[in-house]
Amino acid sequence: MPVTLSASVDASLKQKATPLLLFKSSATVPLLASVLLLAGCSAQTTSEKSAALAPLTSDFGQPAQVAQAPLNMAKVRNYKLYIAPIIGAPLEIVTPLSLRFDDILKTQSITLASNMETEADYILKGYLSNLTENNQTSVLYVWDVMDKQGNRVHRLQGQEKVSGKNGWSSVPATVMGKIADDTLADYFRWVSANAP
Asked: Is 142 in contact with 126 (CB distance < 8 Å)?
């Protein structure tokens, strides 16, 4: 199914952005690994809900101090993408992120592969977790970009903080939409600069 970025998303890709909050300490990484392991082991059963996203003003989280090569979306469109099931978050959290992925990919005419083994040029495998501290919830995300042989060729990661200490229930759909924006913008940049 062809998928693409809206004009505002495409324009945002060309602008410099504010710094993305990355993991601030080496202690966070083992904690994230533990949270992800536990989250992947627990079964989540929730009713299927479609969450509407508010318009996003994401600047795609690229650090402003890094010089960017021009984005070649024509090159990016040559590669079929398969998005693997996302690990670590309940369905009501993943749904707005998935819907935003779909909107962006359709707007940018990026073809989604329906089969990871036979059709995909790249596979995007995501892991989400949340940490609550000092009345704030942080959504931590890690995306592995894998080639068709299953080798990791790139990793995208970051975090978004929201007010509230109720874990996933503190996270609004707009934050998940911003994570989708930032993830795909980083993926597009990487493919544009690094794919053969």
From this structure: yes
Please work out, in degrees rounded to the nearest 5, the angle formed at the alpha carbon of residue 94 by the alpha carbons of 155 and 17: 50
Query: Within its chain, how far is the Cα of 106 from the centroid?
Result: 16
Question: Strand (E) positions, the chain?
Answer: 2-3, 81-83, 110-111, 122-133, 136-147, 152-163
pLDDT tens digits, one per residue of 101-127: 999 999 999 999 988 878 999 999 999
User: Which two structure tokens, joined as six digits, stand for 84?
Assistant: 């693997």
Tens of pLDDT along 54-91?
333 334 444 433 456 678 999 999 999 999 999 999 99
Please report, for residues 16, 61, 64, 138, the alpha-carbon distance to residue 67 in angstroms, rounded to integers and kept in the order given: 9, 14, 8, 28
